[in-house]
Design brief:
By secondary structure, the protein is an all-alpha fold. The chain has 5 helices and no strands.
């Protein structure tokens, strides 16, 4: 199961991270409409794709897999929190910086999508920790 969860998350983060890099201008324009302010924009434009691609790399390397699962949990928690705030109408604008098929999803669909991957990340982390403990006992 760890391998399956790893593959699913690597695919998710490679696709989303590389799409932000390859379509940087489009990503930048969508992010400029976010509620975070113009000062934070340059940081987010750099940090988000780097974090997503780094997460995929960490997941691929067995020794860093637990860190990859933890980073995945952190990223998906942040994204899900943002969506929950949107659903609660906390922000005056609700632009979607998403690409691909997610652009067409309503916010509740986005949240369910993220929660699915958040569950996979949590289970992957738990299973990885258990596996490491078993290896130490043998």
């Amino acid at each position: 199961m760890i391998y399956v969860f790893t593959c699913i998350l690597v695919l998710l983060f490679i696709v989303t991270g590389l799409e932000k890099v390859v379509k940087f201008q489009e990503f930048s324009e969508k992010m400029s409409g976010q509620v975070f302010g113009k000062d934070l924009l340059p940081v987010m434009l750099f940090v988000l794709p780097v974090a997503e691609i780094s997460c995929a790399v960490l997941l691929v390397v067995p020794k860093s897999r637990s860190v990859g699962f933890a980073l995945s949990i952190a990223l998906l928690t942040m994204f899900s929190t943002y969506i929950i705030l949107i659903l609660l109408h906390v922000f005056s604008t609700q632009p979607c910086p998403c690409g691909g098929p997610l652009e067409k999803l309503p916010w509740t669909g986005h949240l369910l999508f993220n929660l699915f991957f958040l569950i996979i990340s949590g289970l992957g982390l738990i299973l990885t920790i258990k596996e490491r403990r078993q290896e130490k006992l043998t």
